[in-house]
Amino acid sequence: MTSAHAPFDVARIRKDFPILEREVRPGVPLVYLDSAATSQKPLAVLDAMRDYNERHNANVHRGIHTLAEEATALYEGAREKVASFIGATDSREVVFTKNSTEAMNLLARVVPLHPGDEVVITEMEHHSNIVPWQLACERSGATLKWIGLTDDGRLDLSNLDQLVSERTKVVAFVHQSNLLGTVNPVATIAAKAHEVGAIVMVDASQSVPHMPVDVATLGADAVAFTGHKMCGPTGIGVLWARLDLLEELPPFLGGGEMIDEVTMAGSTYAAVPHKFEAGTPPIAQAVGLGAAVDYLSDLGMDAVHAHEQQLTSYLLDGLHSVDGLRVIGPPTMESRGGAVSFILDGIHPHDVGQLLDESGVAVRVGHHCARPACLRYGIPATSRASLYLYSDTADVDALIAGLGKVRSFFG
Amino acid sequence: MTSAHAPFDVARIRKDFPILEREVRPGVPLVYLDSAATSQKPLAVLDAMRDYNERHNANVHRGIHTLAEEATALYEGAREKVASFIGATDSREVVFTKNSTEAMNLLARVVPLHPGDEVVITEMEHHSNIVPWQLACERSGATLKWIGLTDDGRLDLSNLDQLVSERTKVVAFVHQSNLLGTVNPVATIAAKAHEVGAIVMVDASQSVPHMPVDVATLGADAVAFTGHKMCGPTGIGVLWARLDLLEELPPFLGGGEMIDEVTMAGSTYAAVPHKFEAGTPPIAQAVGLGAAVDYLSDLGMDAVHAHEQQLTSYLLDGLHSVDGLRVIGPPTMESRGGAVSFILDGIHPHDVGQLLDESGVAVRVGHHCARPACLRYGIPATSRASLYLYSDTADVDALIAGLGKVRSFFG
Amino acid sequence: MSAPQLESLYQEIILDHYRKPHHRGLRDPYEAEVHHLNPTCGDEITLRVHLDGETVADVSYEGHGCSISQASASVMTDLVIGKPIGEATAVHEEFLRLMQSKGELEPDEDVLEDAVAFAGVSRYPARIKCALLAWMAWKDATAQAVDQTGGSE
Amino acid sequence: MSAPQLESLYQEIILDHYRKPHHRGLRDPYEAEVHHLNPTCGDEITLRVHLDGETVADVSYEGHGCSISQASASVMTDLVIGKPIGEATAVHEEFLRLMQSKGELEPDEDVLEDAVAFAGVSRYPARIKCALLAWMAWKDATAQAVDQTGGSE
Ligand SMILES: Cc1ncc(COP(=O)(O)O)c(C=O)c1O
Ligand SMILES: Cc1ncc(COP(=O)(O)O)c(C=O)c1O
Q1: How far is the CA of B104 from the centre of ligand 1 (A)?
Q2: Residue in B closest to A364 by C-alpha
């Protein structure tokens, strides 16, 4: 795959992202190491949305005037781009949502659950893959079970056979953890879940942006991800699911676009994916996401992944060289991505983040919406540096230098 | 109010909307009369979003680096702008959703309903204010009741006292109908509903963009509207509701941002409005909506409304002059807005719309997501011309000329 | 009206069939009757099929809708009445292919006859369903009629 | 580190209190103990209040968190211990006003003493909660202690 693309030239790529030239204050250039929270957007994406809004904007579907047909073609064309980006055989398997959180809530709302049923999630989940299932279990009387974690930040699968049983209806877990960086073995867990007939949902919010993900071979029945973390805009996310699964599930939100026939006596629903897309969809945002996957495909996801792996290794080396720093999550490159959490002995992450910001270095601090995992490791919060395709060694060097200053300031 | 603003100069205003200079095909300029489906966006809105994405993009909340603080300030600043635009006393009453449909679904999901309870809606509702209540009634065993319509396109309130009773928990209705253009008497209906302790929800998707709406005096407990119909982007909508109502309702979607504390044993929820905003919100879109309400406020909503009223009158006169044309909805200017549905004797709306498009005139044809109302008037579909602040008499003239051509083509 | 796109949609043949539809009205005998609706635009058709052995002996219909859907029903009846089911089905499939062609296919006039006039419709995504309404109803009714008459193949 | 913003946040006084916190550790006697948490960043404090009639006789605490929250607890105890409840409450209100000022308020040094060092924090929305944590806990505990002791006013 990689061979078809131009060599990966970070310096050139950075020119596509105007924000990277910004100074956070006079004389202090931005060093953006918070891409796991949200990625920056290349000009191609901003231009596609601008062009949509300036030339083609109309509401989609049911319109027969020129703009409406153009807007519909652009919107449905974006669906096809996203489908082929993740290897979906049928673009009807791609449901546009407002973000990854909504995608997971959608599934948690419509999957039938009953008292005695069980849902299995993991202790490293993002709140967006915890709370929807807590609420679903409260509503239905089902029970929530948790896959635990090992000390070095991996799923503890030693008791998987007990956790996943005939009672299990859903197994939902993160592909790549936003807190720990861990990449989980989807196939292993999915195989076990499918043995008992459970639905497998993978939170791919942090994997689809960073590595080639092929839903045809992944092993999941449903996958959620979010536009703003993959060079696309805010306001759009994706739920991919097997066509037959989508078809058998009841609708989520009701309204325009998602209906077939509405009468006072009752309504029938449109075919998928529109059944799950009530109301005017995020049209300009779908166009932006389509441009984002074009951008990523042009670079090649293999190349993006290789670049990030190389840089993550460099980052880990740098972090390990800082006195009193402990990485929370896998300390080596084995099955991990470019989001690296750490704590500095005796210095609170808030202070670390604030002082780094003084050097222009943007990292995220806090529990990263993964509080159960923080509690598991006995820490209230971490600092997290996270990379993307436009990150370079200079970014990492600035972080390591900044951490030195933090230590001396609070030393 | 109007006096504080520059005189309303449509020619100048049109320059703010680049799409209005477009030709739908060589030599055929666009005549956009489909603003009820979605409005066009002024440069100020496109620029605000571009600037956000190019200079300030970060995920909101919990971030302490410069970009995160800027993004948070812009996002929450947009909430304040929207609040003051609709006269909300407290910006916490403004919940950002993905569109108006989600806003209404949110309310229909969280308002407690039980068997024996009743929900009252009207026969002129948009599907987005029908299907959520049909689903809510199915789930809860409550009963859906309908306020009927008069022949000239108004709510038939003659039996309101029977329809709204002690059993009524919610009365939900449209402020201005997207199909008929009718403006409904909110205060009258709200007073009756409040007598019996029902919650009043107003679908303001077609009113907030076109007239001054002041939630403090409107009489509603909750109001829904949508960014893309008011010069803002797609991907954002608003649920306004009384603070105490929002506070007592349970959460809707679960995930990041909406929680207070998450543990494996259970979760507690953030204060409003964040309780209802799970996941990364539509940040750039909120910024765009903020710029849109600034744009509207600069023009003055009184002036916008006056302009549209004048032009609607001109449009009605023009339509009445077309042979064999029947207006569906109020035929006069009394309590009506600038969305005008009509049918041409013996010519199907699809053919009308298609032929108008040949002259560059964009109108919408179909049931306009208000099929029960279409059935009420015994028609499968209408053509609808709808105006906005950038519409002018030339647009109307082009429509009337186009309708003449339609008649001669199919005559 | 002279824009080329429009002419390619509203061919004179289409307008002729729209103004003077063939085989319209519901007739006896019939083995199957169906009612199809295009909920998006409200086009409706009630359609009956009468088989005589392997042959489509009669197709009759009532309905309302736009010029495209009405003309398409008229043209369709011309094409299928009197043909063996298999042959009529082949015409239906050819028409379907034409509709999915986005204007890229040169229609086969020997098979489609007057229906070639609908080639332009395939460039208007919102109108394709209109052109297909009667054909889908015919296919449905014919399948039911075949079941009814004990299966002719 | 010489960026002016930073200095205005991390004043030397704040760092001093952070490194050598005053009145830290939980002590007896006390009438009320509260536990407050800032779930966003995990800052935690357990705080006890001992009243002697109308006077805040002692405030003791344990907890962990960032330099701002820790220093703020230390400064707060200096300010309220020994003061009549009403006066201590007035200091609390002044501090609250300062935190809400977005850096626009000239703090009253006579009332706030060392706490004026927190003026810069009000420019960092994400940090204001840190600075307020101990104060909110004190307010809560004091209210409970007043209830406990039968209401002193
Ligand atoms: C009256 C009315 N209500 C609700 C909606 C739904 O708005 P949205 O599609 O943005 O959710 C619309 C517009 O389509 C409308 O006109
Ligand atoms: C692993 C993971 N899951 C889910 C989410 C939620 O994504 P969003 O906030 O876009 O819904 C995120 C990002 O915040 C994430 O990192």
Answers
A1: 10
A2: B63
pLDDT at D5 over 80: no
| CATH placement of domain B46-297 | 3.40.640.10
Token digits of residue B185:
């008497």
D6 confidence band (pLDDT: 50, 70, 90): low
**Protein residue closest via CA to atom 14 of ligand 2:** A37
The Cβ-side half-sphere exposure at A218, using a 13 Å CA radius, reads 29
Question: B1: which 2 tokens?
Answer: 């109010």
d(CA A79, CA A287): 9
Tell me the pLDDT tens digit for each residue of A219-277.
999 999 999 999 999 999 999 999 999 999 999 999 988 988 899 999 999 999 999 99
Q: Which ligand is nearest to the CA of A254?
A: 1
Please check whether residue D99 is in contact with residue D116, taking contact to mean a CB–CB distance below 8 angstroms.
no
Question: Which residues of A does the annotation mark as catalytic?
Answer: 369
- Assign B94 to helix, strand or coil: strand
Ligand 1 center to residue B202 CA distance, Å?
12
- Give the model's confidence band at C9: pLDDT under 50 very low, under 70 low, under 90 confident, else very high: confident
Give the strand pairing for A199-203 and B199-203: unpaired
Is residue B277 within 8 Å of B257, Cβ to Cβ?
yes
Question: In 3D, which of B411, B339, B337 has the Cα closest to residue B382?
Answer: B339
Q: Is A261 on the interface with C (CB under 8 A)?
A: yes
DSSP state of B390: T
CATH for B10-41+300-409 is 3.90.1150.10
Mean pLDDT over A51-79 rounds to 95
How distant is the Cα of D145 from the closest Cα of chain B, in angstroms?
27
- A380 contact D CB<8A: yes
pLDDT in tens, B245-254: 999 999 999 9
Q: What is the mean pLDDT of chain B?
A: 96
Nearest to A255 by CA among A267, A245, A246: A267
Which domains, and CATH codes, for chain D? 3-149 (3.90.1010.10)
Identity of residue A408:
S
Burial of A9 (0-12, 13-18, 19+ CB in 10 A): exposed
CA angle A207, A212, A216 (to 5 degrees): 100
- Tens digit of each residue's pLDDT (9 = 90 or more) over B208-244: 999 999 999 999 999 999 999 999 999 999 999 999 9
pLDDT in tens, B6-45: 789 999 999 999 999 999 999 999 999 999 999 999 999 9
> Taking Cα atoms as reference points, which of A130, A175, A194 lies closest to residue A145?
A130
ipTM: 0.94
> What are the distances in angstroms from CA B33 to CA A21, B166, B302, B303?
42, 43, 21, 19
Rounded Cα gap, residues B48 and B288, in angstroms: 6
DSSP per-residue codes, A109-165: HHS---TT-EEEEETT--GGGTHHHHHHHHHH--EEEEE-B-TTS-B--TTHHHHS-
What local confidence, expressed as pLDDT, does residue C75 receive? 97
Q: Which of A39, A96, A125, A178 to mutate to test the pocket of ligand 2 (most atoms within 8 A of CB)?
A: A178
Q: Which helix (H) or strand (E) holds A184?
A: none
Residues of A in contact with B256 (CB under 8 A): 101, 126-128, 369
Query: What ranges in chain C are assigned the alpha helix state H?
Result: 4-9, 12-19, 67-80, 85-99, 109-112, 125-148
Q: List the domain boundaries for chain B.
A: 10-41+300-409, 46-297
Residue C25 pLDDT class (50, 70, 90 cuts): very high
Q: Which of A402, A372, A370, A371 is nearest to A385 (CA)?
A: A402
Cα of B198 from ligand 2 centre, angstroms: 37
Rounded Cα distance, A318 and A270, in Å: 53
